[in-house]
C-alpha cells in the first residue's frame, strides 16, 4: 500500500456529520493535518480542526486554491442540502449536491488529491422497490431532488473510478441520530428532534406517521463505518457507486416506546407533513451484507443503546440532569 501523510479537507465540517467526523479525524491524524471548511465566519472554537477555511464549495477556484495551499491528499466532501430542504430549492440542491463532487473527482483525476469520501443516502432507492431488506444492486428510482442528485452522484463516482481509477468511496447513510450537532432539513430528523422535545417538554409531535419505519444509524457507528471504509484496502472494495448501510430500523411509535423506558410520562402525537411522502418512497430496512463482507462493517448501537446514550448526553448538554 502507498504510504504518505494524509492532509485532510472536510467540507460541511460544521454540519451534523462534519462536526463529529472532524473530531475523530483530529484524534487520528492530529489537528494540524485537518482542515475544516464551512460557510460560517471563523471564530474561536468553531471547529476542533487545526485550520478553518470559510468556503463556498461551489466556488471551484477557491476550493482548488485551498487544496493546493494545504497540500490536501484526502477530501471528505460532506456539504449537501438534505431531502426536505432540497424540495424547496431543487435547482440549487442539484448544483450543490453534484457539481462540487465532480470538481473533486476532476482534481483526483489530475493527481491533485488521492482519495475522496462522499455521502450518498437511502434516498436513492425511491418508489416501486420492495420496502424490506433492500439489496445493494436493486434498480434505483428516486422521486425526490435529493435522491436524484445522490443517485447521479453515485454514478459519477463509479464513472470516475472505472474510467480514471479515481479512489472515491461512498456510503448510503440511513437517517443519522446524534446529540452534538442537530440535523438540518432531513426527513429522518424527527428521530433527533424527538429527543430534544422529550427532555425539554416531555412531549413531541412527529411529522412522520406512527407506523412508518425507516433505517437509522447512531452517529458513533456512522463515523466508525466511514473511517473503516476509508481505511479498507482498495482491492477489497467491490462497490464504487455507494455501499448500502442498514443500521437499525424503527417507527416513530417504537422509538417513543423506547424513550418512555427512560422518560416514563413521554407523550407523542402525529401530524405528518410533506416529508411523509418522502418517507413513504424510502425503504424500511436495508441489506448491508456487501459492506459487511468487503470491509467488515459492524455496529455497536441498537435502538436501546442509542436511546440511552442520546438521553444521557442530551440531558447534560441541555442542563436537564
Ligand atoms: N437523513 C437524510 C434525510 O432525511 C437521508 O439521507 O434527508
Annotated CATH homologous superfamily of the largest domain: NAD(P)-binding Rossmann-like Domain
Class of the largest domain, according to the CATH hierarchy? Alpha Beta
Strand order of the largest sheet: 3-2-1-4-5-6-10
Question: What small molecules does this complex bind?
Answer: serine
Shape: globular
Uncertain ranges: none
The average pLDDT value, as a whole number, equals 96
What is the level-2 CATH architecture name of the largest domain?
3-Layer(aba) Sandwich
SSE arrangement, N to C: EHEEHEHHEHEEHEEHEEHEHHH
How many H/I helical runs?
11
Write a concise synopsis of the structure shown.
The chain has 321 residues and is an alpha/beta fold.
Can you give a write-up of this model?
- There is one protein chain.
- This protein is α/β, with parallel strands linked by helices and 321 residues long.
- It folds into 2 domains: 8-175 and 219-244, NAD(P)-binding Rossmann-like Domain (Rossmann fold, 3-Layer(aba) Sandwich); 176-215 and 248-285 and 301-317, UDP-galactose 4-epimerase, domain 1 (Alpha-Beta Complex).
- It is built from 11 helices and 12 strands.
- It has helices spanning 16-29, 60-69, 83-88, 90-109, 145-164, 190-200, 219-231, 252-262, 275-280, 289-295, 303-317; strands spanning 8-11, 34-38, 51-54, 74-77, 115-121, 167-173, 175-177, 203-206, 214-218, 243-244, 248-250, 267-270.
- The strands form 3 sheets. The protein has a 7-stranded parallel sheet, with helices on both faces. A 3-stranded mixed sheet has the order 7-9-11.
- The radius of gyration is 19 Å and the shape is globular.
- Serine is lined by residues 82-83, 121-123, 146, 173, 175-176, 186-188.
Amino acid at each position: 500500500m502507498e504510504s504518505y501523510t494524509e492532509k485532510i479537507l472536510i467540507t460541511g465540517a460544521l454540519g451534523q456529520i462534519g462536526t463529529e467526523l472532524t473530531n475523530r479525524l483530529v484524534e487520528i491524524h492530529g489537528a494540524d493535518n485537518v482542515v475544516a471548511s464551512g460557510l460560517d465566519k471563523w471564530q474561536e472554537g468553531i471547529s476542533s480542526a487545526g485550520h478553518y477555511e470559510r468556503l463556498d464549495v461551489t466556488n471551484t477556484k477557491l476550493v482548488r486554491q485551498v487544496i493546493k495551499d494545504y497540500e490536501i491528499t484526502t477530501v471528505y466532501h460532506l456539504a449537501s442540502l438534505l431531502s426536505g430542504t432540497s424540495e424547496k430549492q431543487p435547482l440549487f440542491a442539484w448544483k450543490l449536491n453534484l457539481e462540487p463532487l465532480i470538481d473533486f473527482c476532476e482534481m483526483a483525476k489530475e493527481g491533485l488529491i488521492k482519495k475522496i469520501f462522499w455521502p450518498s443516502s437511502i434516498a436513492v432507492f425511491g418508489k416501486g422497490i420492495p420496502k424490506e431488506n433492500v439489496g445493494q444492486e436493486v434498480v434505483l428510482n428516486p422521486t425526490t431532488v435529493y435522491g436524484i442528485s445522490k443517485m447521479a452522484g453515485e454514478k459519477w463516482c463509479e464513472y470516475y473510478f472505472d474510467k480514471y481509477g479515481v479512489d472515491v468511496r461512498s456510503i448510503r447513510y440511513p437517517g443519522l441520530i446524534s446529540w452534538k450537532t442537530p440535523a438540518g432539513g432531513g426527513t429522518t430528523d424527527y428521530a433527533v428532534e424527538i429527543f430534544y422535545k422529550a427532555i425539554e417538554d416531555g412531549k413531541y409531535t412527529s411529522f412522520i406517521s406512527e407506523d412508518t419505519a425507516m433505517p437509522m444509524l447512531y452517529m458513533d457507528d456512522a463515523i466508525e463505518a466511514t473511517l473503516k471504509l476509508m481505511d479498507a484496502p482498495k482491492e477489497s472494495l467491490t462497490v464504487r457507486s455507494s455501499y448500502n448501510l442498514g443500521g437499525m430500523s424503527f417507527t416513530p411509535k417504537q422509538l417513543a416506546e423506547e424513550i418512555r423506558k427512560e422518560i416514563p410520562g413521554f407523550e407523542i402525537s402525529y401530524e405528518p407533513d410533506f416529508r411523509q411522502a418522502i418517507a413513504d418512497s424510502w425503504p424500511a430496512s436495508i441489506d448491508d451484507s456487501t459492506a459487511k463482507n468487503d470491509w467488515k462493517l459492524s455496529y455497536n448501537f441498537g435502538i436501546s443503546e442509542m436511546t440511552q446514550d442520546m438521553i444521557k448526553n442530551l440531558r447534560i448538554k441541555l442542563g436537564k440532569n
